[in-house]
Structure of Glutamyl-Q tRNA(Asp) synthetase:
Amino acid sequence: MLPYRGRFAPSPTGPLHMGSLVAAMASYLDARAHAGIWLLRIEDLDFERSVKGADREIIQSLQRCGMQWDEEIIWQSARTIHYQDALDKLKPWVFPCACSRKEIADSRVRMGLSNAQIYPGTCRNGIQNGVTAKAFRLRVPDGKASEIHFHDRLLGFQWQDLSAEVGDFVLKRADGFWAYQLGVVVDDAEQRITHIVRGSDLLDSTARQIYLQSLLGYSTPFYLHIPVVNNADGEKLSKQTGALAFDKGSKDLLNDALCPAAEFLNLRLSTKPTSITQFWEYATDAWKQKFFTDQGQSRPQ
Ligand SMILES: [Zn+2]
């Protein structure tokens, strides 16, 4: 077994809310429980959605919670050259695509297919002369090779048919930004991540990432997807649904943020902690109780 390396990789689209604190906490506790390395990566590939100064705010919020990363923070916006390298390596499977979102949805309707999101393969065999490519897509395999399965440490056996459920997916977007799927795979490999712990809103991306890892010759990490925090309307907490910074105005992060986040993760702390340092000790023990005994999958190495 490789030495444990985990990470938290927030997008700086706003301050950390309760949902992102829960994700940060889960990855941090898993790293601590394995006596491993924990890294922080700022996923600021989409300059238009990134909010100036949000990265600093995120860093400070994590520090206030007593969370410490073990190596230098990386910013995806500074790593363009590495994504270009990966795109070059993927050349045999990549094709330019000139379709707009609307064209994709329309052609799905014409073909009588239900999900408007799935790419119907329009530009697979080339684009018309005089039309400019807007995006670059990865051709997904047909048949058996399109079925990706993996084990999730919490959710168990997972399965996705890339060709039926996703279609050829974007690596470089029409607006020139690198796609999340490519950035995350390249950086997880660069940071030698062995264990990914993140929200289950990203479960659906995992098969695409595993497929990219296989084409690029990277190893596949262990995955654990934790439940996402919803608001009262049942929507995932996010900046779009108006989630507030978890530490806004709080003078007692232990009781206002850390304990409720641990409770959301169903961690049973043996004693009520009286300090942040104590919280992390007790929560790490509770994490071990939960994940090292029930599952048998994630014993410390
Ligand atoms: Zn196209």
Remarks:
- Residues 22 and 248 are 16 Å apart (CA to CA).
- The longest helix spans residues 276-293.
- The first strand starts at residue 5 and ends at 8.
